Amino acid sequence: MSLGFSFNMFSIQSPKSQILSRTRLSSQFINQTQVKSAPYTLSDYHVNSSQPFKLSTSSKRFNPITASTAVEATTSSFRNKNPKDINILVVGSTGYIGKFVVKELVSRGFNVIAIAREKSGIRGRNDKEETLNQLQGASVCFSDVTNLESLEKSLENLGTSIDVVVSCLASRSGGVKDSWKIDYEANRNSLVAGRNCGASHFVLLSAICVQKPLLEFQRAKLKFEAEMMKVAEEDSGFTYSIVRPTAFFKSLGGQVELVKEGKPYVMFGDGKLCACKPISEQDLASFIADCVLSEDKINQILPIGGPGKALTPLEQGEILFRLLGKEPKFLKVPIGIMDFAIGVLDFLVKIFPSLEDAAEFGKIGRYYAAESMLILDPETGEYSAEKTPSYGKDTLEEFFERVLREGMAGQELGEQTIF
Q1: What's the pTM value of the predicted model, to 2 decimals?
Q2: Exposure of 380 by Cβ count < 10 A (0-12 exposed, 13-18 middle, 19+ buried)?
Q3: Which of 218, 112, 108 is nearest to 165 (CA)?
Q4: CA end-to-end span of the chain, whole Å?
Q5: For 116-167, how does the pLDDT look when each residue is reduced to its tens digit (9 = 90+)?
Q6: How distant, in Å, are the alpha carbons of 297, 394, 401, 411 from that of 307?
Q7: Which of 133, 166, 196, 288 is deepest in the core (most CB within 10 A)?
């Protein structure tokens, strides 16, 4: 996940034989049940295949992956089918990227089964009817990805097999328990349940920032990535594609309205501490859809950015002022302010454990204020814009122009707004 966080006046870039008809499965309403979060270990589950999926019960945190892994893979039979005969299960279908992925897959003629909560959207504001409207063209199944038993029962009730799982799941807040519950546990449940229904390929929406994992949601994502890779190593009939995008447009649009009103553009330091190659939701959805059938994306970690050069916060601000025809006016905030706040929160957590998430949010903010969302060279420790692949046609400048005309409707950060 590229997680976006809004900081008051500024924003920083903080997943067979039967053909399922594309009718809404409105009868498949499964009640959601809560499960206890297990940050570093879960009970062993077994997948019905010749190569069982086993979860390590070690309580040690996962050591980060530092390089892309590509292994020999057997081309799955579903890739020889017509799109209309390929059943794709999408989890995280009502999220910011998920909605666009469902739309793109439907437009390409796939049979899409979208898993959704009964109350979806920011703070659960969308009911079933609104969800069905948002996911038109897909068969919608209401279930709970955090509960393996419920998810497996939901898929069993569909009476069809699954060819591919596409996960757009991501923690909404980035909090410690939420990260492990969604970025790790829910993704894992989706893999287990999908494989039990015949899925032989898994497309995961991850995030480029996991290259330098200092945060809980990054560690949770990496743990799942590693376990999925191990499944592919042990079962030549299973493949994966891990998509690691850079910044999303909405993560960079939080200051548009404020600058339009005459306020300064706020940035840390000199505005050059970090850079990114932002990608639009439409372009990212298209790339994720490519991963379903493209054999050159099998068993690959795929970092991806949008078109054009990498942009620093300073350059993003300059674009905005130019579009407004205003003289640039910047407010430079010392990064040390965040370091002080994080130090205070870390101290308070020792006394008040309930502040754990608040401390984590501070670290998330600090991370996105100083770290570039680009390929990280493990040898030099430097970020490289040149090595970060580009895809698509939508530019940040075009996004800013649209927001200036139409506002940020549909681009809200929701629970990701932390200050």
Answers
A1: 0.80
A2: exposed
A3: 112
A4: 20
A5: 987 655 555 667 888 888 899 999 999 999 999 999 999 999 989 999 999 9
A6: 20, 7, 17, 20
A7: 166
Q: How many residues in total does the chain contain?
A: 419
Distances 341 to 216, 354, 362, 378 between C-alpha atoms, Å? 19, 17, 7, 29
Three-state DSSP string of the chain: CCCCEEECCEEECCCCCCCCCCCCCCCCECCCCCCCCCCCCCCCCCCCCCCCCCCCCCCCCCCCCCCCCCCCCCCCHHHHCCHHHCEEEEECCCCCCHHHHHHHHHHCCCEEEEEECCCECHHHCECHHHHHHHCCCCEEEECCCCCHHHHHHHHHHHCCCCCEEEECCCCCCCCHHHHHHHHHHHHHHHHHHHHHCCCCEEEEECCHHHHCCCCHHHHHHHHHHHHHHHHHHHCCCCEEEEEEECCEHHHHCCCHHHHHCCCCEEEECCCCCCCECCECHHHHHHHHHHHHHCHHHCCEEEEEECCCCCECHHHHHHHHHHHHCCCCCEEEECCHHHHHHHHHHHHHHHHCHHHHHHHHHHHHHHHHHHCCECEECCCCCCEECCCCCECCCCCHHHHHHHHHHHCCCCCCCHHHECC
Q: What is the dihedral angle through the alpha carbons of 243, 245, 251, 253, rounded to the nearest 10 degrees?
A: -120
Inform me whether the pLDDT recorded for 367 exceeds 70: yes
Judge contact between 228 and 311, C-beta under 8 A.
no
The region that residue 376 occupies, defined by phi over 0 for left and psi between -120 and 50 for alpha, beta otherwise, is beta
pLDDT at residue 19, as a whole number: 32
Are the C-beta atoms of residues 188 and 224 closer than 8 Å to each other? Answer: yes
pLDDT of residue 172: 80
How many Å apart are CA 124 and CA 101, to the nearest integer? 20
Distance CA 78, CA 201 (A): 9
Burial class (CB within 10 angstroms; exposed 0-12, middle 13-18, buried 19+) of 97: buried
Q: Is the pLDDT of residue 100 over 80?
A: yes
When mean pLDDT is compared across 36-45, 89-98, 129-138, 186-195, the lowest value belongs to: 36-45
Residues 6+ apart with CB under 8 A from 109: 82, 83, 84
As a whole number of angstroms, the distance between CA 88 and CA 86 comes to 6
- Output Rg (C-alpha) for the chain, integer angstroms: 21
Report which residue type is found at 167: S
